[in-house]
């Protein structure tokens, strides 16, 4: 594998993923239109595969670390971002959902 040629072909994808991740880190993933979310997921998978190739072909520590950082950022935004939304959902349940359930079942609660 010609490493310089491989880097030249793949570098545009790495920069595109970095650009999308910067936008998501500032405004959240919901700020992206659907086609960009699909692009983000596709680029994340592609860069993850590039990281595996870079490790296998021993292209250099600096490139491997850069790809690892980029892949980690992508993982955090794609998979960990939903956890933040879950916490927001919990807050909304405590504020609105739980009181509504108590109001609907107050007679059972009073008997208990």
Summarize the structure.
The chain is mostly helical. The protein is built from four helices and no strands.
Describe the protein.
With 112 residues, the chain is mostly helical. It has one domain. 88% of the residues lie in helices and 0% in strands. The chain contains 4 helices and no strands. Helix 1 packs across helix 2 and helix 1 runs parallel beside helix 3. The protein is elongated. The relative contact order is 0.10. The mean pLDDT is 88.
Give descriptors for this structure.
4 helices, elongated, mainly alpha
Main sheet specs: none
Mean pLDDT: 88
Radius of gyration: 22 Å
Number of E-type strands: 0
Counted by DSSP, the helix tally is 4
Order of helices and strands: HHHH
What is the number of independent domains? 1
Give the termini distance in whole angstroms.
73 Å
Based on Cα principal axes, name the global outline: elongated
Judged by helices, strands and strand pairing, the structural class is mainly alpha
Enumerate the spans where pLDDT stays under 50 for 5 or more consecutive residues: none
Helix content percent band: over 70%
Per DSSP, what share of the residues sits in E-state strands of 2 or more residues?
A: under 5%
């Amino acid at each position: 594998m010609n490493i310089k040629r491989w880097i030249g072909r793949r570098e545009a994808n790495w920069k595109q993923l970095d650009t999308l991740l910067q936008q998501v880190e500032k405004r959240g993933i919901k700020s992206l239109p659907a086609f960009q979310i699909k692009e983000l997921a596709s680029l994340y998978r592609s860069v993850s595969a590039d990281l595996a190739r870079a490790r296998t072909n021993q292209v250099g520590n600096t490139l491997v670390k850069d790809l690892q950082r980029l892949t980690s950022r992508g993982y955090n935004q794609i998979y960990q971002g939903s956890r933040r939304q879950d916490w927001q959902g919990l807050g909304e349940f405590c504020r609105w959902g739980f009181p509504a359930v108590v109001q609907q079942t107050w007679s059972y609660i009073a008997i208990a």
